[in-house]
Design brief:
Structural class: alpha+beta
Number of helices: 13
Distance between the termini: 53 Å
Radius of gyration: 25 Å
Largest sheet: 14 strands, antiparallel
Shape: globular
Strand content: 15-25%
Helix content: 25-40%
């Protein structure tokens, strides 16, 4: 728990499991509290957000009462069904949480359902149920009415309901007039099962779920996730970690559009008490190629193509302005209204303010996104060709890049410290031209190949001359500095340099020396390369897994395995990772982070293959 100097402490960011229905998700703490839930979509205003303000944010808690209570949380194997077990001398009980997946989750709806079951396996336990919705981050008032134990919350154009209590457990007189909060106690004996359903946009004329119907939905949800997990073609080492990461990615992909949110939360801090508190409930173009590679490598072709098509649609729309034809991020439906604002009356997680929703970095110029977009489209070409209209739009994007690749940009890390000629932006512009050239040549598509080849080669020359620091013996963050950046760990992965090249090996040594601490990797050094923001940050888990890839490809297999397996120990109790790890080992930043889990998958696959090759060679000798 994160201790504050007053009232109840915030739970640690890592002390949560994740449930979802492919259109939104909820975080459930290890004390049985849903303290983050946006509806009807990932990027909608929150209904429960006590992670950001313990009172104004609202929550839905079910927890057992009793002396000597111990709590364990786990997933039902191979699923996104979460079990929080309460154990004390008077009994053992479980809260089972899940969100049923619709028969066709690609159809967007406003109706979300959180199903919470209580089951007692020994003795008798009393559970306290507190349901305190706060619509639109607490900015919208609502009324509450109770009829035969069912509670209806009316916020005008946003409604919700709670079903499962009896008239004896809650009545209209029990609901405070100002908030309509539900506070009830439920006693459950051995073998008994109670079901509670919190629903947004409920159909009040529909028959309410009873326990048997809830059990049927539980079995159906378990079957959905197990059948999906078993589609994976991965059978190597660390399979449980890889499988859990894949399920996280599936949970974070918005089924109606194919867009993958970077994380389902907003404003969880990169430093406790600091100002680096951003909204990650959007889809970054940058995630495109990484997502596609990882999903395809596991055999999840449908999900990879869905995201690649989402990227292709953004290429066709060309809605960017200051950022060029593409924006760096969008809402999950592809729209681009991401105005950043602060929730001034929210206390912030552990006092970390401002509490930002929306994202002001959306219109930054980040040239690397063009490489990531083209890479995503390139790797899915074998599954779905770009058509003539799409190719025409893509040529338009490349025409813009021909004229604009050689200019300063804000960089991959969305710093607020001004534009520079960031090396990674150049690397990914090289990728953009390289992949476009390959697509055109492979399929005989019309293209100004001489121009594209000239740009590709000019970028290559610039990276290997201006971005190389001979004194540092490393590719540096931008020309003229001696600071290295962990994002250059991707340089061999995208094929711009051999992982055995002496220039790369010395760069890897420089990154190890400057940015690696006990196998954990900082993305850059803000003290040496100011990013326009006060405060510090932890090691970046994405980069820690990229480091494993780099060590593996460099032939340093034992180091790579040590770094990977140590990194796995920083995952939480159910294998989830946030964005960063602070010096005390706490997970920080938005949670769980899709990019971290993408990188985990890619590192596991590369390292597992290298270990297999080494074992085969040893047997042969």
């Amino acid at each position: 728990m994160i201790t504050m100097d007053h009232e109840q402490a915030f739970p640690e960011i890592a002390d949560h499991g994740l449930i979802g229905d492919l259109q939104s998700v909820a975080l459930v703490s290890t004390t049985g509290t849903i303290d983050w839930f946006c509806a009807p979509r990932f990027d909608s205003p929150a209904v429960f957000s006590s992670l950001l303000d313990r009172e104004k944010g609202g929550s839905f808690s079910i927890r057992a009462e009793g002396d000597g209570m111990r709590v364990k949380q786990m997933y039902f194997p191979q699923t996104a069904v979460l079990i929080t077990r309460f154990m004390c001398p008077s009994g053992v009980g479980e809260v089972i949480d899940f969100m049923p997946v619709a028969a066709d989750p690609t159809v967007a709806t406003d109706n979300r359902a959180l199903l919470r079951g209580i089951r007692v396996v020994r003795g008798e336990l009393t559970f306290r149920l507190e349901c305190r919705p706060r619509f639109d981050f607490g900015r919208r008032t609502h009324t509450a009415t109770a009829t035969d134990g069912d509670v209806f919350f009316d916020g005008g154009d946003f409604t919700a309901s709670l079903h499962g209590l009896t008239a004896d457990e809650v009545s209209a007189s029990d609901l405070p007039g100002d908030t309509g909060d539900v506070d009830a106690r439920v006693t459950v004996g051995t073998g008994a099962l109670r079901l509670f359903v919190f629903e947004t946009a409920p159909d009040r004329s529909a028959e309410q779920l009873d326990v048997e119907a809830g059990l049927a939905l539980f079995r159906k949800t378990v079957m959905f996730w197990r059948e999906w997990a078993e589609r994976s073609t991965y059978s190597g080492r660390w399979r449980e970690a890889v499988e859990r990461s894949a399920i996280v990615l599936k949970l974070l992909q918005y089924a109606p559009s194919g867009g993958l949110v970077a994380a389902p939360t907003s404003a969880l801090p990169e430093q406790l008490g600091g100002v680096r508190n951003w909204d990650y409930r959007y889809t970054w173009i940058r995630d495109g190629s990484f997502s596609v590679y990882s999903l395809l490598a596991l055999g999840y072709t449908e999900e990879a193509i869905a995201f690649a098509l989402w990227v292709a649609d953004r290429v066709a729309e060309q809605a960017g302005e200051a950022s060029g034809p593409l924006k760096i991020m969008y809402r999950i439906d592809g729209s681009s209204d991401l105005e950043e604002q602060a929730l001034d009356d929210f206390e912030g997680y552990a006092g970390s303010r401002p509490v930002n929703i929306g994202n002001g970095a959306a219109d930054q110029l980040q040239l690397d996104i063009y490489g990531e977009a083209l890479d995503a489209m390139f790797v899915t070409e074998r599954y779905r060709h770009v058509g003539q209209p799409g190719w025409s739009k893509l040529r338009g994007v490349l025409d813009w890049l021909v004229e604009n690749w050689d200019q300063p940009d804000e960089g991959v890390w969305e710093t607020r410290g001004g534009r520079k000629d960031f090396t990674y932006g150049r690397i990914m512009c090289w990728v953009a031209f390289d992949r476009a050239i390959r697509i055109a040549r492979d399929r005989g598509l019309p293209a100004p190949l001489d121009t594209w080849v000239a740009c590709r080669d000019a970028i290559y020359e610039q990276v290997f001359t201006r971005c190389w620091n001979p004194e540092r013996k490393a590719f540096v963050q931008y020309p003229g500095t001696d600071v290295v950046d962990a994002i250059t760990l991707l340089m061999p992965l995208v094929g711009m340099i051999s992982p055995q090249d002496p220039m790369w090996l010395s760069t890897l040594d420089a990154i190890t020396e400057e940015l690696v601490t006990d196998s954990l990797v900082y993305r850059y050094n803000p003290a040496a390369s100011p990013d326009g923001l006060p405060g510090e940050e932890g090691t970046f888990s994405l980069c820690s897994f990229f480091y494993v890839n780099a060590l593996t490809d460099a032939g340093r297999i034992d180091e790579a395995q040590y770094a990977f397996e140590k990194m796995l120990t920083y995952g939480n109790h159910v294998g989830l990772f946030a964005e960063e790890i602070d010096p005390a080992g706490l997970q920080l930043g938005n949670f769980p982070q899709a990019f971290t889990h993408l990188a985990l998958i890619r590192a596991a696959i590369a390292l597992n293959s290298a270990l297999d090759r080494r074992e085969s060679a040893q047997r042969a000798s």
